[in-house]
Structures are given as C-alpha cells and as structure tokens.
Automatic annotation (TrEMBL):
The gene is bamE. Its main location: membrane. It is a lipid-anchor. The keyword Ribonucleoprotein does not apply. This is Outer membrane protein assembly factor BamE. InterPro entries: BamE (IPR026592), BamE-like (IPR037873), BamE_dom (IPR007450). Residues 31-102 form the Outer membrane protein assembly factor BamE domain. Residues 1-18 form the signal peptide.
Length: 106
C-alpha cells in the first residue's frame, strides 16, 4: 500500500509540471530593421554618408573587407507583436566610397 501511494504521488507530481503554461520569454530582436521602401531608394553611385543617412549604420562593417557593409536582422522568441524587418539580410559593396553593388537576400 505504501509503495503504491509513493508511486502514485511521484507520478502525479511529475505530471503536474505539464499543467502550467510555458514560462514567458522576452523577444530579443537584434540588428537593423529595414523596410523595402528604404532599400528601394538605394541607388548605385551613392556615397557612404548618403547610404548611412538613408538606412542607418550597418550591423557589420568587417575590418578585413571594409568595402562591404552587412545589414542583418534576427529575432529570438519572436511573437506576433515583435517588430520585424522586411529584409533580413542586405549586403552593400562600395568602391572608393561609392556604392557599386546592392545584394538583398530576402
């Protein structure tokens, strides 16, 4: 009788954890929120300051490839209310401070 009661209590206590809802996790958006409208205003031949004014500072400006700017956006634990970027990845290539290539990766 005692073993049955202990077994029943253990089984009930282990299954009780599944009755509660999952813990709240704060959404963590990171990177540049870009809109298609902003990116469509980019034109080849623009200078670096013009691009920075239009879409902001890049998420990654690599020291080994300083002529490439990468705009990235990720979101961990996103919900329906979390801000989202229309473009998650964008690579801009400059030559002598002039925009020569736009590579949006949707």
């Amino acid at each position: 009788m005692k073993k049955t009661l202990i077994t029943f209590t253990l089984a009930l206590s282990m299954s009780a954890c599944s009755l509660f809802p999952d813990a709240y996790k704060t959404p963590v958006p990171q990177g540049n929120i870009l809109k298609q409208e902003q990116v469509s205003q980019l034109e080849l031949g623009m200078t670096e300051p013009q691009v920075r004014f239009l879409i902001g500072t890049p998420m990654i400006a690599d020291q080994f490839t300083p002529n490439e700017w990468r705009y990235l956006f990720t979101s961990v634990y996103a919900t329906d209310k979390t801000k989202k970027s229309e473009i998650d990845k964008l690579t801009l290539t400059f030559k002598n401070g002039i925009l020569v290539k736009i590579d949006p990766q949707l």
